[in-house]
Amino acid sequence: MIKRDLIVVGGGPAGMAAALSAHEHGVKDILLLERDQFLGGILNQCIHPGFGLTYFKEILTGPEYADRFIKKITAVKDIEVSLKTFVTQLTGKKVLTSLSPGRMDEIKAKAIIMATGCRERTREMAHIAGTRPAGIFSAGLAQKLINIEGLLPGKEVVIVGSGDIGLIMARRMALEGAHVKAVIEIQKVSKGLVRNVVQCLNDFDIPLYLSHKIIKIHGKDRVEKVDVARVDENFCEIAGSQFEIACDTVLISAGLIPENELIEMAGVVMDKKTNTPVSDKVNQTSIDGLFVCGNAYQIYDLADSVTKDSILAGKMAAEYIRGKL
Amino acid sequence: MPLIKPSPNNNTIYDVLIIGGGVVGCAIARELSKYRLTIALLEKEIELAFGVSKSNSGIIHPGTQNKFGSLKGKLCVKGNKLIRKIAKELGIDFKEVGELIVAFNDEDIEHLKDIQKEAKRFGIAKMKIVDRAWLSKNEPNLSPDIVAALYVPSAGIISPYRMTYDLAENAAKNGVEIFTDNKVLKINVLKNAQVPFEISTTQSIYRSRFVINAAGLFADEISKLVGVDDFTITPRKGQEFLLDKKRENLTNHLIFPLPSKESKGVLVIKTSDGNPMVGPTAQSVNDKEDRATDEEGLNTVLSFVKRMVPSINGHDIIAYFAGLRPVAGDDFIIRHEPKVPGFINVAGIQSPGLTAAPAIALMVVDILKNNGCRLQKKKIFNKFREKTVHLFKADRKKMKRLIKEDERYGDIVCRCEMVSRKEIEDAIDRGARTLDGIKFRTRAQAGRCHGGFCTTRILKILSEKMKVPVTALTKRGRGSIVVMGERKV
Ligand SMILES: Cc1cc2nc3c(=O)[nH]c(=O)nc-3n(C[C@H](O)[C@H](O)[C@H](O)COP(=O)(O)OP(=O)(O)OC[C@H]3O[C@@H](n4cnc5c(N)ncnc54)[C@H](O)[C@@H]3O)c2cc1C
After folding, report:
1. Do the chains contact at A132 and B314, CB–CB below 8 Å?
2. Does the interface predicted TM-score (ipTM) exceed 0.85?
């Protein structure tokens, strides 16, 4: 079994900030594991501006924001980065198992910081009825297809959810020539930033249906249309309000869920509703020396806030390793 | 060896031609491949198992709850026995988890005793009625209101699509020619000819001495093509809801309510990959492709199963689907059609068709024999198939060895279900052509993120291996195109 001082799992903004901060606070033996082939995490596909305003006092795109940290990490010799490395198991004794092409390792660490990010709520979790044709994407997957793979998910689009990701994707699809026919929001107001509602919807004449929900998805092979209805205070369909929108694509942007299956496996006390560790102090879990930061700890609105709290996580891990926490 | 052969050789004269690449057609193909026959199997979809056989409960029923004397009951009991051997030969995971039919009061217990008596006549063994104490110990999540249950240990679970694929693969290895994307449109019957059947499909024309109609929901339409129209198939929809793997240990057995006349009721199911499942509903529909789920279905299922296992929670649902049972009256229709010598109907194969499939295959062999088909066993029949590797089922030692042998096992594509690049590539080598085909074979995209993370990677691997652009790839063939173009630059 390999032994290390600190392992950071996840190479997005949270993991990178935590690793750098731990190093600054004196940890000399750090292993950063990332399953993708690049560092940067989800920022790599967020090519729109709006990052860095509070932390760098500049307006940056996601990849630019990530790049500042990637440059720093590569400059620090004490931080070893292992890409294409997937952690499959974590125990309460802070032993983890990782797979990478051609190898499987078991590593024990004095402290571990989990910065595994989040996943998107799916159409299934939102219990949207209907068929299961091609053309239903999570907003993040659609973003990746367009921005990273250079592919167009669809042409006539309905978006479920008006959080920032839904709004950004409405604009992104419109910019690529798709016809975004509606953004459907079950709440009375958009959860997104006002500037996003203005810049992503209003400027592109994309209608926002507040207090509405998709009742059913139709289509055998590819999406053909959706049934939409207005909802009352209890989010129940108002009789007679139903109408349909023809479309070939539905993007689901119905919220994010922290990815914490590994710490759950390790026996961390979890809040089942939010899928986050129960703790009274940011980044902490019920297991000593096991920390969680970034969107895995809680869903943040801004990458800058992730950075701020993750720097703290690095410091906490350093103090723990020195026996001070 | 490519499983799906390209364009057929039109000069071949087949002894037997099977229409339908579901579990029934594939079980028949594999059974017949033991004989010296030239056999073809035609499937209209782009892959096998895309009909009824992809969406069902995956239960290998013991045979209880069937009327004594019914074909369904007889073939189910026999199929339950046969599947064990087949699963071993083909390396398919089969687990005998047992089932509990639960009772809430004394009246229910009497009903259980009747079921037990009836089941004994079928030859179902080792059943017993278990009491509250037994249940508390062996099935702790069961509702305290349940007072007793009929325990039937021979019930099991299997992956229905993998069973279909593995039967087909072994059949192909033993010479059966499998043609997908080949919809039968017309059958010409030449009276008194040596080779009476001319089957026209969307791709070609095939000639055969015998035709077996195992077309699932469409068996009535195929039968009509040769003039036999005394049955119709009415789809009966069943909606099912899958729970997160985290709840794998929700129950230790399959949990059944007392059966109703219409169906076996809404169940708490264990599946071969670990996710518990609840369902199915039973509602007759008109459209043979109506696989929509609805809120009513969800609410019905939840209210039924919560009565038996109260801790089941809608929040744990990660996926759902609807399947259609091909219903033609109360029983299976398996018979030679004397009006059209050489034509055999295998129709109305509703539940328990998955369980019965191997027994149906044996019955079809007998029918062929009795109707002039010369059956001679092959000297060499290769009954084994190398078990497909699933990383998520391997222990640490095996995992380590696999990764050492082939580094692609260490390259994880699907994070939720832990599926490696090697498994995806293998699936394509074995015949997967679509996103769903990959999902059914490997479980990639079937987990809690539902492909949110791995879809792009799978598309790229498919595109590379199949040498087609990503824009041509589909979710499940036909018009189910995944992306609608390339981004303009
Ligand atoms: C909700 C549900 C739950 C079930 N649960 C269970 C269970 O737990 N246990 C059990 O034993 N059984 C169960 N069943 C029943 C079982 O799934 C079926 O009996 C079985 O899958 C039928 O297989 P098949 O091969 O006859 O049909 P299919 O799988 O439908 O195969 C027929 C094939 O024929 C093809 N075809 C049709 N027309 C043409 C044409 N013109 N040309 C070429 N090909 C054609 C179709 O595309 C299809 O692939 C369940 C069924 C449902 C719907």
Report:
1. no
2. yes
